[in-house]
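SEVERITY: medium
COMPONENT: batch folding queue
REPORTER: lab tech (J.R.)

DESCRIPTION
The queue accepted two submissions in a row. Attaching both inputs and their returned structure tokens so the on-call engineer can compare them side by side.

ATTACHMENT 1
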Amino acid sequence: MTVQTEVTAGGGRIFEGRFAAEQIACVRGERLVFRNLDFVLEAGGALVLRGPNGSGKSSLLRLATGLLPLEAGALTWNGENIENDAPEHRARLHYLSHQDPVKPAFTVQENLEFWAGLAGHGEAVTEALAAFGIADLADVPARFLSSGQRRRLNLARIAASPAALWLLDEPTVGLDDLAVKALGRVVQDHRARGGMLMVATHLDLDLADATVLTLARAPATEPA
């Protein structure tokens, strides 16, 4: 269970937890993607996923959300299998995939207010807009945004509503250098509050004390 405490005036840790994989395996279709995989992610920690295309980085992130079933092993939060309470697990995380769930008829600000309001943190919208340099686009309908602007809006969505575990799949795609630096600052702030990060990225996000997990593509002939 996620433990949240009051935020102090100067920031401070608000998340505690331990997310772990124990001998997990993934099969997509009839192909073994990986097996016997372990990791431990403590409060404030970061796990960077590396490996060639097809090695299972995106699949591992989807497994971590509970959206994909494990072939073997277990994913646990504070020692409890996440399958025992899937809704609670999903409530403690943000997942960013290759798709941006932007509502095209809403303005940029309306999109953020919708997402942040769902989590009860509408007051954070202004800060999130500023963090990713889209405050001047607040009144622009999202259908007019470029792909990079849509990506920044989706990242602002994550920043606008607290969650203990961030699962980010190639979050820098479509971002310029300034937006990548903004992402680094937001991630640093998230971790300073005890938040956890799992990220698949080809760029160096300058994540202090991050653990790198390198996945190798399983041989095509290896049985599941």
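ATTACHMENT 2
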Amino acid sequence: MEFFKKLMNIKLVIKPPKTKKVLVYDSSNIQVFENLLNKKDYNIFFNRYEELNLFILKNAIFIFIKKIFKFKSSSLSSIYVYEFIKASNPKLVITLVDNKLSYFLLKKRFPKIKFFLIQNGNSLIDFKEILSQNKKELFIDKLMTFNKIYAKEFSKYVKGKKIIIGSIKNNFVKIKKYKTIKVLFVSQFRKFKKHKKEVYVTSQDKKKYTWEDFYQYEKKIIKLLAKFCINNDYKLSIAGFYENKHGAAEKNFYNEQLIHFPNLKWEVYNKIDIYSTYKLIDRSSLVVFIDSALGYETLMRNTKCVSFSVRKIKGRNFGWPKKLNQEGPFWINYFDETKCLKKLNHISQISQNHWKKLKNKYIKDLIFYNYKNTELSKIINKEIKK
């Protein structure tokens, strides 16, 4: 049923794509590219097939059938991608999809086109296992990363130049501090696809974790925060992952945990757009996260925060891929309620100047912020003017 719903929502295009300087691979973060590029300069390849180009599909089907008769193996979807890129004839292909192996292989197919990839989160934690098993050479002309630690980790698997830009979405939001929220928890809640017992994550050491395994610590942490907020007469705020139309399941998840705390005031803030959560962070005195990329973006925004990276999944320790102790002034990699509460009390009470010194002492190399992405804009403009 879900398949047919998606099928009915596909937009069909008859004309071939126009030739543009830039091809944006995937539309899921198109707001970023609208801010970064001139609209007349780029096309979009709809990687999730929200839009299907019938002209390209016709050519792809013809090539696919020819390959079958010649006993050559190739998927129709990959042929469609190749034909779309050929028809678009861009100077540059760029994406924020940093966990799709097929994108890393496109350079070999189109050696004269430049391929850029922008890190969009911390998916390398799980994706590195796929990269390490790959036997083909992977090349990206310019791979933009959060920091030099990630640049070094990507270099183990992908050839090409690495450039540190910080978080592209975070960079587009000016840092404005006005504290109206005492405690903000970064939700990583996602709806399970079929059932809670299905495999949700495979770790770097190939262990499999179900949805229930993964989210058991959200339940522990949110209850811990409830106690902390009640003891200090704070309201607990939750930065939701979903926008309003999909936020009901997320709110219900937290309601099931917090229903046992009748004296607690709490609220889930649903996303308004891809930038709204950064503004929420700037309003917060203290941000708490488990292992979300948004937590590290909080550090880039100089907001006080505490990380409880307690999932016991390889690669999800605080600061990965940087090697840090299991516990530090504002993080802990195992669940100990007494120690967790102690860190919350300590960090919430220190001054902003003390916080900056503490943060820079341990994780200065994890932090980079370039307002309006001026450095990235220069790199892209230089490329498309050649």
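NOTES FROM REPORTER
The first strand starts at residue 11 and ends at 13.
No errors were logged for either attachment.
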